[in-house]
Design brief:
448 residues, alpha/beta, Alpha-D-Glucose-1,6-Bisphosphate, Chain A, domain 3, TATA-Binding Protein, 3 domains, 14 helices
C-alpha cells in the first residue's frame, strides 16, 4: 500500500494547495484525534514554527481535535525536537508540529510524534489517512475536547537541552554566533548557550512570519560566515526553520557540515571509550567519514536518505549516533529524534574536552570530492534505474574508481529527476566520471 498524504517526513506542500488547506487540516485534526482516541482518553500537544500560516493551521487542527474529543495543549513556536520531548514529558498521546522545516514561508506541513516522542508507525499513518477520507462525526457536546496554552514550554525545553551535557559544563570564554533562521529556535537557542556561559550574538532571530529560512539558517550559511569573521567569533552555529538540523562555520567562516559534525561527536566518544556500537549515515554521507571511521575500526552503515531511515538502522542495531550531511543529527543517548541544539552542544563539549578549535577537530576527516548532477527524465513506466544499459555504465564507472570512490544513482522523491552522484579521492576523475555518467542518463531518459 502507498500512502496518499504522508511522505517520509509527514505531510508537506504549498499553502492553499491541497492538502495544505484549512479544510484538510480540520479533517486531519479530527482523524488524528479519532485514531489516537480509539485507545481511550486522548491528549495532544501542538507546536509550530514561525511561518505566518501556522496560526491558521493551528486553529484548524485545534478544532478538528476538539471535535474528536481530544484534549489539546498549545505550545506556541517551538523547535520540532522540543515537541518530541514535551510529548513525552507531558505524557501526551501524540505531538503535532506545524512546520515545513527548511522550506520557504509559503510552504507548510504537519509532523506527528507518538507518545514515545518518535515518528508514527506506518499502521497509524494508514489509519489516519483512512479516517481523513471518512465522514466526520463530532463527539457528543459533553465529550468535546478542551484547549489550553502551556506557558512554561520554552523553559522546560531549555533545561532539557542543558541536561544533555554534564552539569559541570561551561562554555565560558567561547564566543559564538547563532543563526536561528528566523525560525522556531529564535528564543530558546540563545538562552541555552548563554546559560551555559558562552558569549552569544544572534542573527536570524526576528521572525515576521514571512522571512523564515530567507537567506539565513542551515541552508544559507553566507550570512553566518560573514558575521563570524566580522565579529572575530570562535565559530558559528546555524539551525533550520524548525530546529532539527544544525550546520556550523569555523573561525575563518568555512562551512562544517553534518558529516563533519558527526565525525567530531563520534571521535570524542571513541577517545573517551564510551562509544557504543557504530554510526549510521545515509547514501549521501561523504566517503571521507566512512574512511575516517574505518581507520579506527568504528562500524558504519548507510541508510536510505531520510532521518526515519537513519533512526531505523540505529534501533535495529542498538546504536546511538547517526545523521545526514544536511545536519540532521541523532543522539539517541539524549533524545528520540534529530535535535539541532542538542547536537550542537555535544560538538561544543567535544571541542572543550579536546582543547581544539572547530577547524582542528575536523582535520582528521578528509572530505572526498563529490559531484552531484540532476537530470530530468521522462517516465515510461517502471524505474529507469533498472535499465540494463544504465547498470552497465554504472558498473564500468565503479570499476574505474575501484576502492577510491563510489557511484550513487537515485530518483528524487518530489520531482522527475535522476540524481547522479560520483564521489572519490581524485577531484578531476570525480568530475569526469560524473559528467560521463550523466550524459548516459540524458541520452537514455532525458525529458524534452
Amino acid at each position: 500500500m502507498e500512502k496518499r498524504y504522508f511522505g517520509t517526513d509527514g505531510i508537506r506542500g504549498l499553502v492553499g494547495t491541497h492538502p495544505i488547506t484549512p479544510e484538510f487540516m480540520l479533517k486531519l485534526g479530527w482523524a488524528a484525534g479519532t485514531a489516537f482516541r480509539n485507545n481511550g482518553h486522548c491528549r495532544v500537544v501542538i507546536g509550530k514554527d514561525t511561518r505566518i500560516s501556522g496560526y491558521m493551521f493551528e486553529s484548524a487542527l485545534e478544532a478538528g481535535l476538539s471535535a474528536a474529543g481530544a484534549q489539546v495543549q498549545l505550545l506556541g513556536p517551538m523547535p520540532t525536537p522540543a515537541i518530541a520531548y514535551l510529548t513525552r514529558t507531558f505524557q501526551a498521546d501524540a505531538g503535532i508540529v506545524i512546520s515545513a522545516s527548511h522550506n520557504p514561508y509559503y510552504d507548510n506541513g504537519i509532523k506527528f510524534f507518538s507518545a514515545e516522542g518518535t515518528k508514527l508507525p506506518d499502521q497509524l499513518e494508514f489509519e489516519i489517512e483512512r479516517l481523513v477520507d471518512a465522514p466526520m462525526q463530532v463527539v457528543e457536546a459533553s465529550q468535546l475536547g478542551k484547549v489550553a496554552r502551556q506557558e512554561d514550554a520554552s523553559g522546560r525545553y531549555i533545561e532539557f537541552c542543558k541536561s544533555s551535557v554534564p552539569t559541570s559544563t561551561s562554555f565560558k570564554g567561547l564566543k559564538i554566533v547563532l543563526d536561528c533562521a528566523h525560525g522556531a529556535t529564535y528564543k530558546v537557542a540563545p538562552a541555552v548557550f548563554r546559560e551555559l556561559g558562552a558569549s552569544v550574538s544572534v542573527i536570524g532571530a526576528t521572525p515576521d512570519g514571512l522571512n523564515i529560512n530567507d537567506g539565513v539558517g542551515s541552508t544559507h550559511l553566507a550570512a553566518l560566515s560573514r558575521a563570524v569573521v566580522e565579529q572575530g567569533a570562535d565559530l558559528g552555529i546555524a539551525f533550520d526553520g524548525d530546529g532539527d538540523r544544525v550546520m556550523m562555520v569555523d573561525a575563518a567562516g568555512n562551512e562544517v557540515d553534518g558529516d563533519q559534525l558527526l565525525y567530531i561527536m563520534t571521535l570524542d566518544l571513541y577517545e573517551r571509550g564510551v562509544l557504543e556500537g557504530g554510526v549510521a549515515g545515509t547514501l549521501m554521507t561523504n566517503l571521507g567519514l566512512e574512511l575516517a571511521l574505518r581507520e579506527r575500526d568504528i562500524p558504519f552503515v548507510r541508510a536510505k536518505v531520510g532521518d526515519r531511515y537513519v533512526m531505523a538502522e540505529l534501533y535495529k542495531r542498538g546504536w546511538y549516533l547517526g545523521g545526514e550531511s544536511s545536519g540532521h543529527l541523532v543522539c539517541l543517548k539524549h533524545t528520540t529524534t534529530g535535535d539541532g541544539i542538542i547536537a550542537a552542544l555535544q560538538v561544543l563539549r567535544a571541542l572543550r574536552m579536546s582543547g581544539k578549535s572547530l577547524a582542528e577537530a575536523c582535520s582528521g576527516m578528509n572530505k572526498c570530492p563529490q559531484k552531484l548532477i540532476n537530470v530530468r527524465y521522462q517516465s515510461n513506466g517502471g524505474s529507469p534505474l533498472d535499465a540494463p544499459e544504465l547498470r552497465e555504465a554504472v558498473a564500468a564507472t565503479e570499476a574505474r574508481l575501484a576502492d577510491t570512490g563510489r557511484v550513487l544513482l537515485r530518483l528524487s522523491g518530489t520531482e522527475p529527476v535522476i540524481r547522479v552522484m560520483v564521489e572519490g579521492q581524485n577531484a578531476a576523475q570525480v568530475n569526469q566520471e560524473a559528467e560521463a555518467l550523466a550524459a548516459v542518463v540524458r541520452k537514455m531518459f532525458a525529458a524534452d
